[in-house]
């Protein structure tokens, strides 16, 4: 039985599937209006264990249900951004992605199936809810008994009644990036600056390995030492393909040891990124704000102007300040890239990001880790034209001096017992509902610092385009001084729940800008832990992952 991990991405421990005879009909909003007959789909994934076998099953079921044409990545490989790009450029009816994002792969780990609609983005909630409902009642489905198709050869093939086009997974996406960025500007910075900047890209044995080689080696002319872990592996080499300071430690260690100026990593399916240079970590919240600030002068795609900016609710408000300075709309949405898609399709959003290392723009309808990495190369190239020798820390400090610094930290408590995690959230909801909580001063445990509660609630979002409402998107406490605490549960893995705690403090005091975020946030973290009774409910003394800014 599949665990209830939410309808957007169905993750499960692998079990054999026995095909039967009929396909159920969807009574709610359909994933493909009019049904599957005569439709064209893009199919690919991050190369994790069971992907080739899953593709063969998709071909058999698709053929039996009237799908006309499937465009497939060679060896079942296509990054999530590349799938979105293909759906949009070829105007297909949608796509199926075989990925569990940044979760581990292999026989004992996660596998996922995700559906993207015709705009290239994740299916909206009414579609995924309908799909999820069917998984609870489905008894039979139909397929055609076809032999396995050789996935290693590109070209067009007739596979029973279905046409299959196997494409190089990289070329269409690289063509798109070259239309967005000035690669000559980046190459000029990398090859004419003295001393030459050093670069390291780490694909974490995920899908972006071939894309990284195409960009850094083939397009930018760097040597093989500029990339590592660039061969996609079914189990990601036994690693956790999540680009953060904990799991991308090999990149961090090499950057520090070799004094590498620009380091970057992407996740298993290519939609997340981390930017890290010698002594310089760029948090996702700062990253998207800085990209938004530099977009018009560093990225040709935005020369005609930026339409609007957005962030997920837990992400720090750094991008809000940039938007205000530039007179742009800014949107706060729930976590989940699909919430950005409506705004993009309506022409009201250009650049957006999530604190969970997701950054992107309206060039596709998915977050795009490689896009963000090339955006940062573009920013550094442009910054060096203005002031030679500028590095990541210089760009960060310049940004903070102009806009102020949002100190931000996220604590991840992974694979917690779901019962205890839910009990903690229920405790907070009851606390928020009490008549005297707003107005209370919550005190730190190791100092005299206190924070007066201004507002506390469960975040709800009304989509300004279609009016749809998304409730219970995260519990938050806002304080009178502008600080925030947020609590969320994430169930995207197959083992338990992940409790995420976010804390944020904004400062315009330049003396504080160089400080370690953990020092400045310590009183706020203490208040969060005491208020939520997190340790009591989860039985955890410390988080598994800490992200700081």
TrEMBL record:
Pfam families: PGM1_C_vert_fung, PGM_PMM_I, PGM_PMM_II, PGM_PMM_III. PROSITE patterns: PGM_PMM. It is an enzyme of class 5 (isomerase). GO terms for cellular component: cytosol. GO terms for biological process: glucose metabolic process. It catalyses: alpha-D-glucose 1-phosphate = alpha-D-glucose 6-phosphate; O-phospho-L-seryl-[protein] + alpha-D-glucose 1-phosphate = alpha-D-glucose 1,6-bisphosphate + L-seryl-[protein]; alpha-D-glucose 1,6-bisphosphate + L-seryl-[protein] = O-phospho-L-seryl-[protein] + alpha-D-glucose 6-phosphate. Its EC number is 5.4.2.2. It comes from the Eukaryota. Its cofactor is Mg(2+). Keywords: Carbohydrate metabolism, Glucose metabolism, Isomerase, Magnesium, Metal-binding, Phosphoprotein. Residues 37-141, 173-276, 287-403 form the Alpha-D-phosphohexomutase alpha/beta/alpha domain. GO terms for molecular function: magnesium ion binding; phosphoglucomutase activity. PANTHER family: PHOSPHOGLUCOMUTASE, PHOSPHOHEXOMUTASE FAMILY MEMBER. Belongs to the phosphohexose mutase family. This is phosphoglucomutase (alpha-D-glucose-1,6-bisphosphate-dependent). The lineage of its organism: Eukaryota, Fungi, Dikarya, Basidiomycota, Agaricomycotina.
